[in-house]
Design brief:
This protein is α/β, with parallel strands linked by helices and about 250 residues long. It has seven helices and 14 strands. Bound molecules: nickel (II) ion (NI) and manganese (II) ion. The site of nickel (II) ion has 4 residues, from loops.
Length: about 250
Amino acid sequence: MGGNLCKHAKDFASPPPLDNPYAMKVTYYGHSCFSVEAGGKNLLFDPFIRPNPLASAVKFDGIAADYILISHAHDDHMSDAIDLARRTGAMVISNFEIGEWLGKQGVSRVHELNHGGAFKFDFGRVKLVNAVHSSSLPDGTYGGNPGGFVVETRTGNFYYSGDTALTFDMKLIGESTTLAFAALCIGDNFTMGVDDAIKASEFIRCGEILGLHYDTFPPIKIDHAAVVKKFHAAGKNLHLLKIGASHTFPRA
Ligand code: NI
Ligand code: MN
């Protein structure tokens, strides 16, 4: 795996031109961390890179972000958020409790949402949606309720589930938004497993899935080929990107 990671290392230093009107470029940084170039900006989700041995070849100092979106307060979703926000000057988008906590740690540019609420940023609209999970900060502070994000931009729409169980609420997303892709947790044990993630893909009416939250810890190791095959049998395309690799999803 090491060779592949090195080959992609240069991508982190100089991202390709932004604002492709027909597509969104996704880059995977391991676990549930990924970036999306959408609406002319770089959106980075759930940064957990330096503590992840699987992501050791990622050039942390080269990661670009205009916005950092945090789904919930667990360490495996925000351990690198403070340092990245400081270096990049990115605005953090998260729930009220995480936003307040980050403010106390010196992160100055924070936009707080709460569930069901949406806001129009310069790249597009972000709505904080339900996730069924838990959420506490590294020092034990209450982190509010965990969430997911529906992001709608002129270059395409996508949904990131965060850590969650399968929930009927996902049907509401499918009814109201046409998604180019969805980033779903699939690793089981702490979140949805494969069968529930396939059901979630049906609820949200999306056939292009970026798999997240697998392989990082022993209880969530998966058989890649078997899982991809299972999605394929359900008529869904599951992308398990190598850490450091990118994939472009055309606007739906
Ligand atoms: Ni979690
Ligand atoms: Mn997690």
